[in-house]
Design brief:
Layout: E1 3-13, E2 18-28, H1 35-45, E3 51-63, E4 79-82, E5 101-106, H2 108-111, E6 123-127, E7 135-137, E8 160-166, E9 174-175, H3 177-180, E10 189-193, E11 211-212, H4 214-222, E12 227-230, H5 244-251, E13 255-258, E14 271-274, E15 285-287, E16 291-294
Helix pairs in contact: 4-5
Length: about 300
């Protein structure tokens, strides 16, 4: 059964005037749609500018044939996919490194003595190593004279054209040059989907994980990729003491993002990838809110 939503709306403009609609109807694909999604659709479809306060009312989902030849999923022209793990107090990302401490610096209860009745605030305190959660590595992590986080422009890790390469850990742990051939990767964020994120925050996550080989790193460098990400414990094989993938990629100013997740929710291409860290001086690694923009 095809469904539509019937509703009234009122839109006010920041430069004066308003727009009203009664018994407005819109094709939808699901059983419900939020007021915000409806508002976003109207603004985009009518190409409205200077929009201020908005109101949706008398909303009702009805069974009715779709009117447009191609259904527009309101509010979903661009889909955002969160590719980051949640950081919480006590989380172990890498064995041997301390877990983050997340606590109150100023609790809500204590804050009440500083404000009028009914007003309270919380100020948090976080103590952690920079290799926590889903994080980005830049050259300073590996090289003393390499660029730190503050020395990269936003274009280095924001809205990069992306490519996902699927190499299931059930097939192999060693990801070689051969696995990376036949894809559009130059000037792109190359994300390696192994499925290892399924073991996140379990004992299995830390050992015998998927990794890139030294030759794979050289191939990615020579193909001119911008960033390489993986949904595994480390992009290098940690069973030894050498780290050829970090050495090769960071030596070429190619950024690395480790501990990604939800890569199965992405198409193989036609998306952009962002993993933006704070602008810290003297820091080579930091947690990011990695995300993909699809559509």
């Amino acid at each position: 059964m095809q469904k539509r939503v019937r509703f009234d709306f009122e839109i006010q403009f920041t430069n004066g005037g308003s727009l009203k609609g009664e018994d407005f109807r819109l094709d939808i694909n699901d059983d419900a749609i939020s007021d915000q999604a409806l508002t976003d659709y109207i603004i985009a479809d009518l190409r409205l500018l200077m929009v201020g306060r908005t109101r949706i009312f008398n909303k009702e989902v009805i069974i009715e044939a779709h009117k447009r030849t191609r259904t527009v999923d309101a509010g979903q022209r661009t889909r955002l996919v969160d590719l980051s793990h949640t950081i919480e107090d006590g989380l172990i990302t890498y064995k041997g490194l301390p877990a983050p401490i997340v606590c109150d610096y100023l609790s809500r209860e204590t804050s009440r003595q500083f404000y009028e009745a009914g007003t309270e605030f919380q100020i948090g305190k976080i103590e952690m190593v920079t290799n926590t959660g889903t994080y980005l590595d830049c050259p300073f992590h590996r090289y003393a004279d390499g660029k730190d986080l503050s020395e990269f422009g936003l274009e280095a890790f924001t809205d990069l054209e992306g490519t996902v390469i699927h190499v299931p850990h059930t097939d192999t742990l060693a990801i070689t040059e051969a696995h990376l051939q036949g894809y559009e990767i130059r000037n792109r964020a190359v994300l390696i989907h192994t499925g290892w994120a399924d073991f996140w925050n379990t004992e299995a996550y830390y050992e015998n994980h998927p990794f890139l080989t030294a030759n794979a790193a050289v191939y990615l460098r020579d193909c001119g990729v911008k960033l390489v990400g993986i949904d595994s414990h480390n992009i290098d094989d940690t069973r030894g003491n050498s780290r050829p993938v970090h050495t090769t990629l960071l030596g070429a100013d190619i950024l690395i993002v480790e501990h990604l997740c939800n890569l199965s929710a992405l198409p193989d291409s036609r998306f952009t990838f962002s993993a933006t860290p704070p602008k810290f001086k003297g820091v080579g690694t930091f947690p990011v809110r990695a995300l993909a923009k699809v559509g």
